[in-house]
Amino acid sequence: MSIWIGVGMLVAVFCTSMLSGIFGMAGGLILLWLLFLLLPVGTAIAVHGVIQIVSNGSRAWFSRQYIDWKILGIISIGLFVSAGALSLVNYRPDLFVASITIGLMPILVWIPTEYLALDASKPHHAFIAGIVSGTFNIGAGVSGPTVDIFFIRTMMDRRKIIATKAATQVVSHGIKVLFYWQAAQTLNTGDWTAILIAAPFAIVGTSAGNWVLQKLSDANFRKYTRFVVTVIGLFYLGRALLVLL
Asked: What residues contact 46, with CB distance under 8 A and at least 6 apart?
């Protein structure tokens, strides 16, 4: 990894972590897209997991007083179930499948509430959220929009949503890193050094995003989240088309 790529990664980690600090996702989608340009799919997903553990972990820490531990526990059970199932079928990632899956994810946040009334505060919905989140996070590398549909329609305020989602993502990304650990072994010492240097920038970016979050109203938070994720999804669909061609 050249020094310029390393510097670019620092900037990317900061900016994407700031975006995630505001919306609770979106930043991870952009970061994974950049990693797909640099690394094999499995390795990119593993590296993405390491950085996102730091980013989401810092976000969960800053908002730890708002975490709903009951919801987190139930979702975590679903995450482990999905990881076990994918391990049994010996799942291996593919760039086209990952890109098209992520590109179509934003459709979920536009589905009217009456057609998909999901609520993470309900135990059985939280368990399903864990299974769906784990499947997409391991299968495609990210799961933000799939988790969001279980939170965005709850009666929880934006701070509780951000905190609980962040804690959920820490567990989810941790499982993802373990799943792709063998792929991560292809990285050399220099690559890991750059990643470890970049990781703290995720904390700074998250802190900046958390400051912006406090300025947003709940209504604007929900409105902007849909549009940001949709734009990113369109980029992924374009990437899938390029891979297909």
From this structure: 176, 177, 180, 181, 183, 184
Contact 197, 6 (CB under 8 A): yes
Instruction: Please state, in angstroms and rounded to a whole number, the distance separating the CA atoms of residues 35 and 47.
Output: 8
pLDDT tens sequence across 141-194 = 888 767 877 887 777 887 888 889 889 999 999 999 999 998 888 888 777 787
Burial of 145 (0-12, 13-18, 19+ CB in 10 A): buried
**Pair of tokens at residue 148:** 């969001």
Instruction: Say how far apart CA 184 and CA 40 lie, in whole Å.
Output: 10
Q: How far is CA 163 from CA 49, 60, 156, 232, in A?
A: 18, 5, 11, 22
Give the contacts of 125 (CB within 8 A, at least 6 positions apart): 118, 119, 150
Phi and psi based region of residue 120 (left: phi greater than 0; alpha: psi -120 to 50; beta: remaining):
alpha
CA distance between the termini of the chain: 28
How is residue 6 written in tokens?
A: 């390393």
Pair of tokens at residue 98: 């990952």
pLDDT digits (tens, 9 = 90+) for 90-102: 998 888 888 888 8
Give the sign of the dihedral formed by CA 208, CA 209, CA 210, CA 214: positive
With the CA atoms of 215, 220, 226 and 232 taken in that order, what torsion angle do they form, in degrees rounded to the nearest 10?
-40
Q: How far apart are CA 165 and CA 185, in angstroms?
A: 29
Nearest to 53 by CA among 139, 178, 210: 178
Token code pair at residue 30: 């952009």
